[in-house]
Amino acid sequence: MDFRYLGNSGFKISTITYGNWLTHGSQVENEQANACVRAALDAGITTFDTADVYANTKAETVLGEALKGERRESLEIFTKVFGPIGPKGHNDLGLSRKHIMDAAHGSLQRLQTDYIDLYQAHRYDYETPLEETMQAFADLVRQGKVLYIGVSEWTADQLRAGAALAKDLGFQLISNQPQYSALWRVIEAEVVPTSRELGISQVVWSPIAQGVLTGKYKPGEQPPSGSRATDDKGGANMIKRWMRDDVLERVQQLAPLADEAGLTMAQLAVAWVLNNDNVATAIVGASRPEQVTDSAAAAGVTLDADLLAKIDEALDPVVERDPAKTQESSPKTREA
């Protein structure tokens, strides 16, 4: 396993992070979830990412149980705040001081830990003053309940404003968690250059485009039984943007490139993301332990310029690059 610094900090994390979105407490039974976490640890993964909104807090509980007994100092545990949790009342979401404080205490209990390594604003809250949000984060850092602060799916302008307030309040904004893959490159034009300037790293989710870049979905064929594209608990809805024959045909062109490089298609996709030096880690999810092991093998893989050019040539017509897509990811109103 390789390790990289997160942002302009002394905090190192594994270049592969195990994440439990759409799996723990939802798609995958607890026994299988524990097996996936064990596979991650066996592969040298030390960084784990979750969120209170995943399976309405159940994912955090499952992860906390799975990591119980591990040396806490050897792990980096990330979670997030924003989405509606609990009974989803009027203060059960967003980035108000009240919700951040309530949510942080709940996450600490469910994760069975005294502190969160990286606490992330899961989206940008247009209805709460940014000053209020950043002050709450600053207080959590000073209380020792949170060590570092990050965000997720913030635009370049939002990152700049957040980083400035963080500096004024005496802490650093060190990470952004965006969707990023060889198919989804919307952060490259604005978010990545701004992040480099500010000392912020990317903690990227969906590096294999919800499984599409593994090549298991074939054009003109029904999705494999039990795959994410058949999951009615959220997975199918997330992956549907890629379930078009023109996309799937292009993805199939990556198979010989992966073979030539001695990689699986999943490893090729994860290694492609890690080729960006502003990316500190790629979050991989799994419903089976062998999927974790496969993805983890992408750590330390270097893709040469010729291979990268061939990947671009294969995917170019179906790649999404519009930077405005980042702004679309955060809801403009905070509704209970």
Comma- or semicolon-separated keywords:
single chain, 336 residues, alpha/beta, TIM Barrel, 8-stranded parallel barrel, two-stranded antiparallel ribbon, 38% helix, NADP_OxRdtase_dom
Lay out the secondary structure:
Blueprint: E1 3-5, E2 12-14, E3 16-19, H1 30-42, E4 47-49, H2 58-67, E5 76-81, H3 97-111, E6 116-121, H4 130-142, E7 146-151, H5 156-169, E8 173-176, H6 191-198, E9 201-204, H7 235-239, H8 245-252, H9 255-261, H10 265-274, E10 279-284, H11 289-296, H12 305-315, H13 324-328
Parallel strand pairs: 3-4, 3-10, 4-5, 5-6, 6-7, 7-8, 8-9, 9-10
Antiparallel strand pairs: 1-2
Describe the structure.
This protein is an alpha/beta fold. The chain has a single domain, classed as TIM Barrel. 38% of the residues lie in helices and 13% in strands. The protein is built from 13 helices and 10 strands. The strands form 2 sheets. It has an 8-stranded parallel barrel, surrounded by 6 helices. Strand 7, helix 5 (156-169) and strand 8 form a beta-alpha-beta unit. The longest helix is centred in the N-terminal third of the chain and has 15 residues, at 97-111. It is globular, with a radius of gyration of 19 Å. The model has no long low-confidence stretch (mean pLDDT 92). Keywords: NADP, Oxidoreductase. Pfam families: Aldo_ket_red. Residues 215-236, 314-336 are annotated as: Disordered.
